[in-house]
Amino acid sequence: MLSNFNRYNGSDESYFLSLFSGTPFKYTRKSNNEYIFLSQPYCSIIGSTQPGMLSALFGGKRSLNGFSSRFLKVYPHISTMPSWNETSMPGEVLEEWEHIIRKVDGIKPPTAQEGKINSIELSFSLSAKHRLISWKNEVNSRIYSDSENETEKALCGKLETYIIRFCLVIQVMRGICGEAEIKEIDEESAMRAIMLIEYFRAMESRITPEIEVGVLDLRHTELLVLLPQSFTTSEAVATGRKIGLSESTVKRFLREGARDFIRKEAHGHYSKF
């Protein structure tokens, strides 16, 4: 699906960028006077792909305009092919999961006199609010400030949206399972949401080098041009400083982002293709 974006309609990608925030959508087809208006649109997408396709699907402009960071990615460590066996998911687990989902689906929001559906709103407990503020100020904002990678900065912004959604989902699921009441989002749900957010951040850090393969930003391109055909790590760091790149940024580039452009000849020694 993603590879066909904008092929027939140049606004596909921009629409999905807006859809993440639930921006109202209207569509008019003049040929048959068709008019569609969605006041609260949403779309859940799940899929899989090969590592070699990540750069084409999420690299380039999509890694900078927030499109890539709208997708939560899972990239587990798999060193060997899984073996075949007769193990399957226990039937009682599947039944319990179906029971939970049906109960969630059965939650009906109140309806106003004119038939309009009113949302069920859950506020945060004071302790949950403090927990989230602490995560925001001490973890997410720090990572944003320390990072020189625009993709990582974009992810920080989207994670702040996702963590609120996770809090709501976790609180409702805990309420369905009898672990809590569905009256407010408590500190336990906030803590679990933070753990989930940091898991996806770790997954993104693993997948970013795959996305950035073959894609260089202007600063890295400039660094590559200035470097001689053969160079050492210290020479690359010194050259990077001249154009405003920190030592950690240059070393990360040599380690992760330049695999299509340089070859590691020995420890601390490189040559350009």
UniProtKB/TrEMBL annotation:
It comes from the Bacteria. InterPro entries: DUF3987. This is DUF3987 domain-containing protein. It comes from Marseilla massiliensis.
